[in-house]
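request received
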Amino acid sequence: EAQVLESGGGLEQPGGSLRLSCVGSGFTFSGCAMTWVRQAPGKGLDWVATVLIGGGGSYYADSVKGRFTISRDNSKNTVYLQMNSLRADDTALYYCAKNFPGSGSFDIWGQGTLVTVSS
Amino acid sequence: EVVLTQSPDTLSLSPGERATLSCRASQSVSSSYLAWYQQKPGQTPRLLIYRASTRATGIPDRFSGSGSGTDFTLTISRLEPEDFAVYYCQQYGSSPRYSFGQGTKLEMK
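response:
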């Protein structure tokens, strides 16, 4: 069964940094783009970043560009989200999702890891 | 920048009724890259429809998607109690690469 599992969330002060990790299993990790999507408490889904196959490119939402970096290590079936210069409005549940090839959609989602930015 | 606007924000219906949810894009979206998700309280989103009209694995045939260009629709033919949830449309394009609509809450009347 294909699944992804996130970790690394927690409480951080404004201006601080966190690194999220997401391990994939049950599918060919190296053959899939991977994405982070976040959801602030009581709000909707918000795309954050996507890393392409082989790490050969990445896309970011304007709200995180220059502060967040997505990367992957195919030898560990892991995708990372390095979050720097955190702000209060980055507080959210961060989901890792597997891209569904050729469809522009996300077919496997993790349970999420909670990031809280507060002093 | 492509903005997806869903309507209505909240839809109140009874089990057995037909639900029609709308997703309108500010610019044309390729039908190949329009998807719908269901999210129940406390749960992770679930892919329902991709490429505007193709049901994902395991999705019942009471769910159907249609549309093209800037107007897309998710239809649930006969509501079951487990269908009451929040539904999101999502697109893949050029700017931003991906975006979601604000969601439609389908609640039981």
